[in-house]
UniProtKB/TrEMBL annotation:
Residues 9-228 form the ABC transporter domain. This is Biotin transport system ATP-binding protein. The lineage of its organism: Bacteria, Bacillati, Actinomycetota, Actinomycetes, Micrococcales. SMART domains: AAA (SM00382). InterPro entries: AAA+_ATPase, ABC_transporter-like_ATP-bd, ABC_transporter-like_CS, ABC_transpr_CbiO/EcfA_su, ECF_ABC_transporter_ATP-bd, P-loop_NTPase. It is an enzyme of class 3 (hydrolase).
């Protein structure tokens, strides 16, 4: 494929600590140096291994305690997809929610509406434009959340367990949407079929990167440490 945008995320000895309830500090990401530029990167590992922390650092939602992190080209816009779409749906009606994501980029309400319809159509949700977000299935809701993220035209998509709450059919459909995105994507997931579709897979264990490989060997490593 040509015409793919390219974004490089560079971490230079990035570490992240949090304050503990006892007044101490806990290191949840140990110093990590990496250069990420593949189109599809998956991050896997047990709960609490540091996957979300890595994504939040890349998104700029939190700053490293130590080290430096850079996205290139500078000023890259990233879009974040959470496990629970409820966390990012703001407006009560599907079309309005997506149009809301474009409030800064497109000034005309009718153009926002047209663009929102276009995005919904590409996701097979054209008929849901006027639906209440509360009437959607969880799979549809996650697609609407993705549509809202795409409406802002992110140059890098960060997805944190985007299929965790979906049933099998929705997972399959949603995976296809993710794989078809134009923008590069970094996805944290427990879904090994999704991870298997990545070009590069990072395995985290207790805040440390323990494998950085093609899907098959990386997933094998994860299975081995998980004893599964
Ligand atoms: N802001 C925070 N305050 C305290 N502990 C945190 C915070 N963020 C993450 N943690 C802890 O750091 C560890 C890694 O978290 P996280 O990155 O969410 O892991 P994962 O996404 O792999 O489940 C977990 O033990 C989590 O409880
Ligand atoms: Mg997480």
């Amino acid at each position: 494929m040509d015409n793919l945008s390219s974004v490089t995320t560079t971490l230079d000895a990035v570490a992240f600590d949090v304050d503990t309830a006892e007044g101490g500090r806990r290191r949840i990401l140990h110093p990590l140096s990496l250069s990420l530029s593949q189109h599809r990167i998956a991050v896997i590992g047990a709960n609490g291994s540091g996957k979300s922390t890595l994504l939040r650092l890349i998104a700029g939602l939190v700053a490293p305690t130590q080290g430096s992190l850079q996205l290139s080209p500078s000023g890259v816009r990233s879009g974040f997809i959470f496990a629970n779409p409820q966390a990012q749906l703001i407006m009560p009606v599907v079309g309005e929610d997506i149009a809301f994501s474009m409030r800064r980029s497109i000034s005309s309400a009718s153009r926002r509406r047209a663009r929102s319809r276009e995005i919904l159509d590409t996701m097979g949700l054209g008929e849901r434009e006027n639906s209440s977000i509360y009437d959607l299935s969880s799979g549809e809701r996650q697609k609407v959340a993705l549509a809202g993220v795409l409406a802002a035209e992110p140059e890098l998509v960060l997805a944190d367990e985007p299929t965790t709450l979906l049933d099998l059919r929705s997972t399959v459909e949603f995976t296809e949407l993710l794989m078809g995105l134009q923008a590069p994507m970094i996805v944290a997931t427990h879904d090994l079929q999704l991870a298997a579709r990545a070009e590069r897979v990072l395995v985290f264990e207790e805040g440390r990167l323990t494998a950085d490989d093609a899907p098959a060997p990386a997933i094998a490593r994860y299975r081995e440490v998980a004893g599964a």
